[in-house]
Amino acid sequence: MRKILAVVLGLVVLGGVAFMALTSPTAWHVIHGEAGMGPEALAVAGHRPDPEKGRLLFFAGGCASCHATPGQDDKTRLGGGYALKSPFGTFHVPNLSPHRRDGIGAWTEADFVRAMREGLSPDGRHYYPAFPYTSYQRMSAADLGDLFAFLMTLAPVEGRAPPHDLPFPFNIRRGVGLWKLLFLDGQAFMPDPDRSAQWNRGAYLVEGPGHCAECHSERNALGAILPERRFAGGPDPEGRGTVPNITPSPSGIGGWSAEEVVTLLTTGETPTFDTVGGPMASVVRNTSQLPEADRRAMAEYILSLPPREGYKKPK
């Protein structure tokens, strides 16, 4: 009996050690490294952060859609608090304002780059992937530096969001490290030399700061995007119906012209004279602030996606 207990205890200890090792940020770095992930890349480039460029990235990234304090008109007051419901529980979006105690005012630029690309807090805790760093990791270090510079120009907002409301086992934050090993590839955006500059600009905006696939895709049981269903629509993560297919399939936006996609990103109007609502209305408020050239680039890229049959809700 004692031998059996000793074996069980040994397995428990071994499992615990393995869990702690695999969920450590170090494990992810061993696989993916840190090249180009932080201040080193900025130093090499001799980059001086430009808040005005950061302002455009703020709109491209839709930061206000989640981080603006609910119930107030000024969408640049990023006190957080929005309750983001999901199949894994409810996430309460944090304060992104430059408040030194409650927001990111005490962060360095390197802290911000690491959070956006590695999903890590300055004290080394994993962020849940409800924060779409799987998309933001595609952004260049220079752009992230510009975005951070712009965020630091906004008004500090006092107050913190309540803790996330997640059931077991999702409330074990350390477990996110395993998720990252499986689904966070650590790859920044790489332009396609066979495509035009406009197409590459659109690809960067859609796949990086715009994080369009995060809503417009089906996910697996672990909450990761299914590559073969990327952009083809899916269940609304917040349980409010379905999110449409934005591939150029007959069940998506097949038949739309680039001009019609640009119009939607500018005014929210569809070719059938309907108007988008729900979370997409907030997205359009943001994309309407971008230069028209960026909206055209996004349209070109979206219309070049592989056509995929749209999501069908199970009967």
Automatic annotation (TrEMBL):
- Please verify whether the record's keywords include ATP-binding: no
Instruction: Please name the PROSITE patterns in this protein's record.
Output: CYTC (PS51007)
Q: Which domain of life is it from?
A: Bacteria
Q: Where is this region: Disordered?
A: 229-252
Main localization (coarse) = membrane
InterPro entries, per database record: Cyt_c-like_dom, Cyt_c-like_dom_sf, Cytochrome_c-type_DH, Membr-bd_ADH_cyt_c
The UniProt record lists the Cytochrome c domain at 49-155, 197-306
| Keywords from the named record | Cell membrane, Heme, Iron, Membrane, Metal-binding, Repeat, Signal
> Could you give a GO molecular-function term held by this entry?
iron ion binding
Keyword Phosphoprotein recorded: no
Q: Where in the cell is it found?
A: Cell membrane
* GO CC, alphabetical: plasma membrane
Pfam families recorded: Cytochrom_C (PF00034)
The entry's protein name is: C-type cytochrome
